[in-house]
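name: query_chain
kind: protein
chains: 1
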Amino acid sequence: MEKQSGASNLTAIAILNAFADPHLLADTLISRAEADDRADQTVWLPSLGTIQTALAENNRHIRRLGRKSITLPHGGGMLAYAGEIPRAREFWAEFSERIENLNAYDETRRIDRVMLEAILQSMNVPQLSILGVLNDYNGQQDIFEYGGAVTAETQNYGRCLFAGSGAEFLLDLVLTADAFWSGVNHRPLGQTITEELAESISSRSLFLESAFPPNSQNSPLAHSFGGFVEWYKIERDGVKPHRERVEIHLTSGQRSRIGRVYLVGMVRNQNAPTLGSDIVVVSLTPAVADIEVHQVDGLNLWLINQLKGEGTIIQPSLPFYDRPEEEQAIDRFSGPISYESLCRTFGEDAEFHRVRLVTATGSRIAAEGMVSVGTGDPLAWLGQTDGMAEIVLNHAVASTAIQRLLGSE
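structure:
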């Protein structure tokens, strides 16, 4: 493991398996130094609901959630930044102007290392760290790093790079996963081992944030990152976003319970289509937390009903940063969400082909991802009874969840 010099910027970004199967991760927590001067000093987080904005451990407050990834034009790859928003704004303004100038005479040119280094050297922004994967027209990928990063060589994920205040936290998650997969003979089904890790980090960060107080060292918030961790696979011809998923948090013990159910998806950003999509994260709380398994055609189906939902739309953090606060509030929705709104976002009777189960038994946390590939049956469905949202999980998910709650491997 090698730690390079650079500021400990307040964020967590990473590139996994940089030279074989690159996946880029970034958290979405936007924080600001010093006290919150707004009248309503609260913020809604998917993991905790409405909380006070103050992060007492480091004299900062949470401003909002926002994507810190930047999709490069013409399939050119992706960047992510760690650091203060004002410094990122400076970079974004200069970067956007260079792109516009390029497009004026060559609408297909991709961004390369030379341009990025020229911009950053001219600006002198040591408070900013950037990680990225750049695609050229010859099918080659260039790993870009600015501002210092932690690097680690792993057995299953090749070289990984981390930056920001949460770099060591993410590194620990990667090393734990690397040790696990090195000790077993099987591999994830329906996805690469790096894709499984990327989604696992997103899922586990959400769970740890909900399970521990914000000032606990086990919570990402104590390391000034969190909210939600976005992840993307960087193909040689462009960016592959994370797919819609259902995530279920379970507690095993004398009485097994359902904690939270999350729906995660992406919708097209209508205000800034060139920047990609907005992330939608919905937290669903069941009115009855008991496990209900039903027999249908001889198979166990798991029904989670009477779900009360709250959700948020996480938009790019840079384009609207300098707009008036009242305009920003219109775009950055968070709050209660109805079944009808869920249908507009995910589709009526929406089907999900990815499910993650996170089971807590005492101090032990077991996480598992399931993927239905190709034309396979969906793993979960969105439905409703009397206007209340419900999730139906197929027999494979139901059986796996019951095994985990019983302590079976």
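note: The mean pLDDT is 84.
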